[in-house]
C-alpha cells in the first residue's frame, strides 16, 4: 500500500472515531440536560410530550431495563404490558425514585398493564366497563394538558389477546374483545377528544408489518378478521401514529426468541400508538426503539415512542 493510501485510510479511521466520540458527548450532554430538568421539576421541555408503549414480558425480570430506559428517555407517559405481577408486587418504590406516578392492574404469571407518568393520573378505568373479564388487559387514565384543546389527555393502555390459533376459542375471545373495545372507545371519544390508545394489539395491520407475508398468510395476528377489527378502530377516528411518517421498510416491534429472529429481522409490527384525530396535528414523530431488544435477556417486544408538540404542555 502506498504512503498516500495509508494516510487516507488513517484519516478516514480518525474521522470515524471522532464522529463516534462526538455522538457520545452529545448523548451525555442530552442525558445531563434531561436529568437537570427532572431535578428542577421540569422533566421535559415544556412543549414536548413523549408517550411510549412497551410490552416488557415480565416486569420482575425486565425492571432494571425499564428503569435504565426511563432514566435515559424520560417519557412523560409509559404504558407497560405483560407485567405478569399481582398489584401487591408492583415496584412502586423504584418508580417513585425516578419521579413517576404509577397505576397497575395485574395478576400473577399472565397479562398485567401499567401506566407510568410524570403527572398524577385521574379518572382511572380498569378493564372495559360493563364486562367482568378476569384477564387484566386494559387500563385508562386522564392527565391534565392545559395547552391541548379541552385541557386533558386520555391514555388507554391495552394488551390485546393473542388468540393462539385462527378459529379456536381463544381466537373468538380475541375478536369479541375487540368488539367490546370498539364500542367503549366510541363512547370515550364523545367525552375525551384527545385520546391515545397504546399497547400490544397482537395485530399486524398490513403485509408490510410482517417480515414474510406469504408464510404468515391467514395465521394469527394477520388474519382478515383481526385486521378488520384494527381497521374498525381507525374508522372511529383514530390514526396509526407510526404511519403518519415515512418509515424504513421492515420496521417491526416484536421478534420471536427462537430462530435468531431478531438478528435476522424476522418480526412483526404489532405494538401501536393510535391517536384520535385532534392529536394527530400535534404528532411530530413516531419511531420504534430497537435498543432494548439488543440487551441481555430482553423482552421479545421493544418500545414504540411518539412525540407530541403542544406549547407549554404541563404533563
Description:
The protein is an alpha+beta fold. Helices cover 32% and strands 23% of the residues. The chain has helices at 3-39, 59-73, 92-97, 169-191, 213-216, 224-235, 277-280, and strands spanning 48-55, 77-81, 101-105, 113-117, 122-126, 138-144, 152-159, 195-200, 238-240, 254-255, 267-268, 271-276, 283-288, 304-309. The chain has a 6-stranded mixed sheet with strand order 3-4-2-1-14-13. A hairpin with a 7-residue loop joins β3 and β4 (113-117). α4 runs parallel beside α6 (224-235). The longest helix has 37 residues, at 3-39. The protein is globular, with a radius of gyration of 21 Å. 38% of the residues are buried. The model is unreliable at 22-31 and 33-46 (pLDDT under 50).
Amino acid at each position: 500500500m502506498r504512503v498516500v493510501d495509508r494516510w487516507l485510510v488513517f484519516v478516514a479511521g480518525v474521522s470515524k472515531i471522532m464522529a463516534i466520540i462526538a455522538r457520545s458527548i452529545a448523548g451525555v450532554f442530552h442525558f445531563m440536560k434531561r436529568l437537570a430538568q427532572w431535578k428542577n421539576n421540569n422533566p421535559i421541555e415544556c412543549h414536548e410530550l413523549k408517550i411510549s408503549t412497551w410490552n416488557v414480558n415480565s416486569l420482575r425480570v425486565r425492571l432494571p431495563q425499564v428503569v435504565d430506559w426511563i432514566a435515559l428517555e424520560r417519557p412523560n407517559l409509559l404504558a407497560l404490558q405483560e407485567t405478569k405481577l399481582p398489584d401487591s408486587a408492583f415496584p412502586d418504590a423504584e418508580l417513585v425514585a425516578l419521579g413517576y406516578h404509577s397505576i397497575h392492574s395485574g395478576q400473577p404469571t399472565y397479562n398485567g398493564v401499567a401506566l407510568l407518568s410524570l403527572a398524577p393520573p385521574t379518572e382511572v378505568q380498569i378493564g372495559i366497563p360493563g364486562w367482568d373479564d378476569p384477564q387484566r388487559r386494559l387500563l385508562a387514565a386522564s392527565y391534565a394538558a392545559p395547552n391541548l384543546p379541552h385541557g386533558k389527555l386520555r391514555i388507554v393502555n391495552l394488551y390485546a389477546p393473542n388468540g393462539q390459533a385462527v378459529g379456536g376459542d381463544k381466537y373468538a375471545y380475541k375478536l369479541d374483545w375487540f368488539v367490546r373495545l370498539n364500542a367503549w372507545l366510541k363512547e370515550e371519544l364523545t367525552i375525551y377528544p384527545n385520546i391515545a390508545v397504546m399497547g400490544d394489539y397482537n395485530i399486524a395491520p398490513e403485509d408490510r408489518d410482517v417480515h414474510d407475508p406469504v408464510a404468515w398468510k391467514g395465521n394469527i395476528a394477520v388474519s382478515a378478521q383481526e385486521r378488520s377489527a384494527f381497521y374498525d378502530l381507525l374508522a372511529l377516528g383514530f390514526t396509526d401514529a407510526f404511519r403518519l411518517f415515512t418509515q424504513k421498510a421492515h420496521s417491526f416491534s416484536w421478534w420471536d426468541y427462537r430462530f435468531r429472529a431478531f438478528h435476522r429481522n424476522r418480526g412483526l409490527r404489532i405494538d401501536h400508538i393510535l391517536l384520535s384525530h385532534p392529536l394527530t396535528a400535534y404528532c411530530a414523530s413516531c419511531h420504534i426503539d430497537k435498543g432494548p431488544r439488543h440487551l441481555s435477556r430482553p423482552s421479545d417486544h421493544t418500545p414504540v415512542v411518539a412525540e407530541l408538540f403542544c406549547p407549554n404542555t404541563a404533563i
